[in-house]
Amino acid sequence: MGNKKVYDDDDGRTIADMSQVERPGMFGHLPRSASDRQKGHADPDRKTSPRTAQDGADGMKQPPFTRKERMKYTWMALRAGLLVALVYILGCGLVIALLYLFWVVFA
Fold it and tell me: Helix H segments across 1-107?
């Protein structure tokens, strides 16, 4: 493919071995990525299941959210997003008003 870069100050030592680090999947609750499943790669070294979002800090399973809790967190996230949008809208409106005022006064 291409020549590997050789640096003058490289002594060949490995600072952090990243060969065993796996790329996380797109969905945290799946044990391995979809690309590995498509390629047919199996993970025979894995003896324990990975921690999921349902695991607590102590490794114990946490009960799933109830419908009421899901609705509450969805509404809280929606409100936070709408608040950010409102700040942007007000900021743009202020800029437009100042530019209009500048146009009317100095034109």
Answer: 34-39, 67-106
